[in-house]
Write a structure and sequence with these properties.
Length: 240
């Protein structure tokens, strides 16, 4: 039942920033499940609140902004699911942590100087999709770079949350189906999902009372700071 608490904070963070539930949940799940199964449980735990957020922000969905990134992301995630058990987790988490810290620092400095980027060029966007898909397939934590991508493509908080939540809904359906088909997830893992989802729903309800008061610039600041904190967390994990 302790899993209700991580589920609550996962729902809270995901609803405010648009991502981050995997980061919160994967601080806990590796203590009770192997990383591949933990990643699958983490993804499914947020499926209910995720679907509710997609419905809430459905008028802000722009499918053309979502489909192409999802195709690239899902192809790489498929490969990562297959090869994930043969790679060094500490090294990969260290690389991801360093990348997130560098990006967050750059984005915060640019925003502080009044130079917030209004668009990410396609070569950089493709790199974001590939890296996100890779780490989602391994650890269920593909959100931070996709959050940056959708932030620059969105004109309002509603459009941003609609885009990223729809993206993650598609991701949940695809990657969960893949993990069940590969035998990584099994029916007995759904007990963790059900318990965690109780907390996630509560966290989402609390967050919904806050998010309407935040404009896109404030959401950007929160996202950048959380990306930096996430990066530091993975750097520390890689050396412990």
């Amino acid at each position: 039942m302790v899993y209700v608490v991580p589920g609550f904070f996962a729902g809270l963070v995901q609803s405010i920033t648009g991502f981050g539930s995997g980061i919160v949940l994967m601080t806990f799940l590796p203590f009770v499940l192997p990383i591949p199964q933990g990643a699958g449980v983490s993804t499914l735990t947020m499926s209910g609140p995720n679907a509710a957020l997609v419905w809430r922000y459905r008028r802000g969905i722009h499918w053309l902004h979502i489909i192409i990134p999802f195709i690239v992301y899902s192809v790489v995630a498929t490969v990562a699911v297959h090869v994930g058990q043969n790679l060094s987790a500490p090294l990969l988490k260290g690389l991801l942590g360093g990348l997130l810290v560098a990006i967050a620092t750059y984005q915060v400095l640019m925003q502080y100087r009044g130079h917030t980027p209004s668009h990410i060029i396609w070569p950089v966007a493709v790199v974001f999709m590939v890296v996100s898909g890779f780490f989602n397939g391994l650890f269920g934590i593909g959100g931070p770079l996709m959050a940056l991508y959708f932030l620059t493509e969105s004109r309002s908080t509603t459009e941003y949350l609609a885009s990223i939540q729809t993206f993650f809904m598609l991701d949940t359906v695809y990657v969960t189906t893949l993990r069940f088909s590969q035998g990584i997830l099994q029916l007995h893992h759904l007990g963790f999902v059900a318990v965690g989802m109780v907390g996630a729903v509560l966290g989402t309800v609390v967050a919904n009372r806050v998010i309407d008061r935040l404009n896109l610039d404030r959401v950007r600041r929160i996202v950048y700071i959380f990306i930096g904190i996430s990066g530091l967390y993975y750097l520390v994990q890689s050396v412990i």
